[in-house]
Amino acid sequence: MYDIIIVGAGTAGLTAAIYARRASKTVLVLEEASYGGQIINTPDIENYPAAAHISGFEFATKLYEQAKELGAEIVFEKVNGIRVNGTVKEVTTDKNTYETKAVILATGSQNRKLELENEKELVGKGVSYCATCDGFFYRKKIVAVNGGGNTALEDALYLSDLAEKVYLIHRRDAFRGESSTVEKLKEKENVEFVFNSRITKLNASEKLESIEVTDNEGKIRTIEVNGLFIAIGRIPQNEIFAELVDLDDAGYIIASENCHTRTEGIYVAGDNRSKELRQLVTATADGAVAATEAVKYLSTI
Question: Is residue 183 located within the same domain as residue 96?
């Protein structure tokens, strides 16, 4: 029996583990893949207070090591469901069932797909969702980045130092990401903006050879590329908890700033929560708040 089980070892989940352990609670963190969440793919974090320049991998690793040193147990298993039996919550994974008094859902989100024919088959053969993971393979080659948010802008900036040419394709006429990054991209001679356009086809034999881009007026352009990096947003991983929490139209868990869900003893933290701003600093804030609220709850049962 654990005091608190945290589902997800991203920034929010690991921060929650740190706060819960500092309150002397027994903590189990369950993670399907690897620690760190999506921030682990960011080459340079510039907007986190007091850490002007740190890689996402280094940041996540420091969080992970801090949680471990404080005594949090971190197990890599996929959570399949949660059952509530009074004040006891049973968390089932693909390998075990664990009991706890409180649960913090910090599952984050997964990459949104273009849903194009042969997209799945071309992953690793020209299609990628992680520029820092796969960018090295495209040194001196031609690549495209699809998206208009911070991730897409950061990917394009990172790739501009590796690739011969970078096309940045966005379906609107302006980017949603930070203007400072946009200005840096404008200074890059090998970066070309392709506005008001969407990718409609992936052309390939054994590997990706070109992409078909259609603008808002229906004009089609074929761009020869060696690689395509898709950064069009993420999808929250909340479906299996739908019986215990309220979801908004986009699938995010509805909760106020205190991170409470509609089920007593179950909290939410991070990018899977419905909120205005999803940034590293708000993920850490959520983790701290959710853990603090869970500790308060434990004192009442």
Answer: no
